[in-house]
Amino acid sequence: MSVNNNPIPFSYAFSFQEGMAHVIRKSGTGFINKFGELVVPCIYEMAFSYSEGLVMVQKNGKCGYLDKAGNEVIPIEYEDADVFSNGLAGVCKDGKWGFIDKKGILAIPYLYDRINCFSEGLCGVFKDGKAGVIDKQGNQVVPFVYDDIFEFSEGLICVCKDDKCGFIDALGNEVIPFIYDRSEGVKCKDGLICIAKDKRWGVIDKVGNEIVSFIYDDIAPEYSEGLAYVNLNGRYGFVNERGEEIIPFIYEDLSNFSEGLAAAKMRGKWGFIDKENKVVVSLIYERVYSFSDGLGLIMEKGRNAYFIDKFGEVNIALKRSNTLLEKLKFAILTFAVATVIYMLIKAIAN
């Protein structure tokens, strides 16, 4: 891969998704490709990551969608909007949410107060203070009787009633009882569910059997590549799908494994480790972000950041741009230093 040797100015950056990375400048937000080329100019007020080839952007307070060439393919005319999932995206007009397809055609009318993303052909939505489930034609498949609802995964969806969560299937049948703490974004992955009970975290299977004891202070939202990070007594490590300790509890913070590597923090610095707990990218950085599309984002102290490959080689360089306040502070400091030097020279001359 060719490398863009000219650092890209940025104020903040995010990991690659679908070959595009989100960068923010003072002028706005835009996207670069894996060659370090600014494909979508930094002129938008806000944007999500690319999903199913399109990205939601906001301009002048309105939302619409761009393709990977930066072309506006769905007009920027909505009050709010979400990412595409299962071929549909939630959009908001006049305070109500509906769904459009990738041609911008309204597929489900504006009936809902809040929406989640479609998953497995179904979506949790909110109406009149309650949550239920609809299909891609807008038909109600689970009645609006829940206080909160998330996304379907492996045939189950987490729903909440009276501050307790359980799981139902696509027909609305209760599969796992309402005995768990209310938590955001809980879902099933690889047959396992990371969830809290009485303020302690553990893991259950798809029928509610306890797989990993509820002893942890924190746990990853889901397993990734067979492992999940957990926190015990203020330190992080990794456990496998049987709850066995695979990587010891020696880290200040961890992210889940992605593409074989996990972001790890020790003594206030970040780097990457592999599944054998070997340091692959030295723990010397101010912040790092998980590998995605073959690249990881690392940020040094000061103004430099880089997208690196798994060998630690720089593919794309970034340089943090100065804010107006920082430029003013630098000017004042420069003037002060120049004044001191001038006074010293004058004193020596006299």
Percent range for β-strand residues: over 45%
What is the annotated CATH architecture of the domain at 113-190? Beta Barrel
Report the principal-axis shape.
flat
For the secondary structure, the number of strands is: 37
CATH class of the domain at 113-190: Mainly Beta
Helices and strands: which structural class?
mainly beta
What does it look like?
With 350 residues, this protein is mainly β. The protein has a domain at 113-190: Thrombin, subunit H (Beta Barrel). 7% of the residues lie in helices and 58% in strands. The chain has one helix at 324-349; strands at residues 4-10, 12-17, 20-25, 28-33, 38-44, 46-47, 55-59, 62-66, 72-78, 80-85, 88-93, 96-100, 106-112, 114-115, 122-127, 130-135, 140-146, 148-149, 156-161, 164-169, 174-181, 188-189, 192-197, 200-205, 210-216, 218-219, 227-232, 235-240, 245-251, 253-254, 262-266, 269-273, 279-285, 287-292, 295-299, 304-308, 314-320. A five-stranded mixed β-sheet has the order 1-37-36-35-34, with no helix packed on it. The chain has a four-stranded antiparallel β-sheet with strand order 2-3-4-5, with no helix packed on it. It has a four-stranded antiparallel β-sheet with strand order 6-7-8-9, with no helix packed on it. A hairpin with a 7-residue loop joins strand 6 and strand 7 (55-59). The chain is flat, with a radius of gyration of 24 Å. The model is unreliable at 325-350 (pLDDT under 50).
